[in-house]
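User: Could you go from structure to sequence for me? I need the amino acid at each position, not a summary. Structure tokens:
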């Protein structure tokens, strides 16, 4: 589904995409910085003339790592049967954090691109559409039997998480600890997540945006131009949390039925309208600077899906939820423009997008296997920002 959406969006961008703040023109007297020397024989026109224009940009942005602080697993194991400690359910070991979502590295930068194509009328009005996409940002952490307990049981060489209400397909290794043997029947640490050997977590973030809009000149002098912006915008925030657990038996074996995978996906597709204005100033020679400000209101269609599945895929448990929210947003774009030759423009800038009232994984793991229901909270402020550089052509 995701690949079909991206393919369709790129095709739409090629057919009808634009650069609203990039198509600078001599609207109502504002003179576009032009440089006709040297003359290069390429099929471009003038920025101030009616016709099509297009552009492509490289982006390097970062975004809020919207993941709550949750302890996923601790050092030690739970005495399921009571044969080890005499009391069923007792935690053997230090109980120190082995895996925590707060230890997944610093915020990453995401490379991306934006393509646009638009048309300028002789009145100075411009119609455009664009498509923006970033490559995924990945965060990860893991826990292995690297820390040894000072006591004789070496309990802290095991990793455990309090998953409960699961079926026997997730029983895990029969013989895990030195207390497990054929005489007592084993399964003293029942469950793949109890006395496990390896756990890994991974968090992925992705952002995509598509826009159709219009830019209309409002007021201009010989050295500056003010214009309005408006249209429709689609924004998609996609986040996924993954947790993998391997329960290695005391003989070193780890078949697929001793592996458990957990995923929690939070998809927020937002549909809305935006309105704003921009101001461009002539700096001299072939340079100018612009600032665009827009505000948007979205209907956020939020889908949350969580799932436990055993390694051999013989059993699984699923959870799903869908909600609707109103999400306000604000965008600021500051750009420096250069016109090296007529009909060609270069752009270097900084952009920031804010979202208010989006969702995030406050606690990504729901430990109740039978009713997973992870804790999803409200992210009152979310920020995406970074730098862009690109080139545009007028035809």
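Assistant: Here is the amino acid at each position, in order:
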């Amino acid at each position: 589904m995701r690949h079909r959406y991206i393919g369709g969006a790129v095709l739409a961008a090629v057919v009808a995409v634009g650069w609203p703040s990039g198509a600078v023109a001599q609207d109502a007297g504002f003179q576009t910085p032009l440089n006709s020397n040297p003359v290069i024989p390429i099929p471009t026109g003038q920025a101030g003339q009616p016709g099509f224009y297009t552009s492509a940009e490289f982006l390097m942005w970062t975004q809020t790592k919207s993941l709550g602080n949750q302890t996923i697993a601790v050092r030690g194991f739970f005495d399921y049967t009571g044969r080890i400690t005499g009391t069923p359910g007792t935690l053997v070991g230090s109980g120190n954090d082995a895996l925590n979502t707060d230890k997944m590295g610093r915020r990453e930068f995401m490379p991306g691109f934006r393509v646009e194509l638009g048309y300028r009328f002789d009145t100075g009005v411009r119609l455009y559409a664009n498509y923006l996409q970033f490559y995924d940002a990945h965060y990860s952490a893991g826990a292995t039997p690297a820390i040894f307990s000072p006591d004789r049981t070496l309990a802290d060489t095991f990793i455990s998480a309090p998953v409960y209400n699961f079926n026997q397909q997730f029983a895990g290794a029969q013989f895990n600890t030195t207390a497990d043997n054929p005489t007592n029947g084993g399964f003293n640490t029942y469950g793949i997540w109890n006395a496990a050997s390896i756990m890994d977590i991974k968090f992925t973030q992705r952002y995509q945006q598509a826009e159709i809009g219009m830019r209309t000149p409002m007021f201009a002098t010989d050295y500056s131009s003010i214009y309005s912006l408006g249209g429709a915008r689609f924004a998609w925030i996609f986040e996924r949390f993954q947790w993998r657990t391997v329960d290695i038996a005391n003989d070193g074996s780890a078949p697929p039925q001793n592996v458990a995978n957990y995923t929690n996906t939070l998809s927020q597709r937002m549909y809305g309208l935006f309105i704003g204005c921009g101001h461009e100033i002539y700096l001299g020679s072939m340079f100018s600077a612009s600032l665009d400000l827009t505000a948007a209101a979205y209907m956020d269609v939020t889908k949350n899906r969580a799932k436990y599945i055993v390694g051999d895929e013989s059993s699984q448990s699923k959870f799903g939820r869908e909600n609707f929210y109103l999400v306000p947003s604000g965008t600021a774009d500051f750009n420096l423009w250069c016109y090296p030759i007529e009909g060609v423009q270069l752009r270097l800038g900084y952009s920031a997008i804010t979202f208010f009232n989006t969702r995030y994984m406050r606690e990504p793991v729901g430990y109740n296997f039978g009713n997973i229901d992870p804790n999803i909270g409200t992210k009152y402020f979310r920020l995406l920002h970074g730098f862009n550089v690109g080139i545009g052509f007028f035809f």
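One structural detail worth keeping in mind: Helices lie at 2-16.
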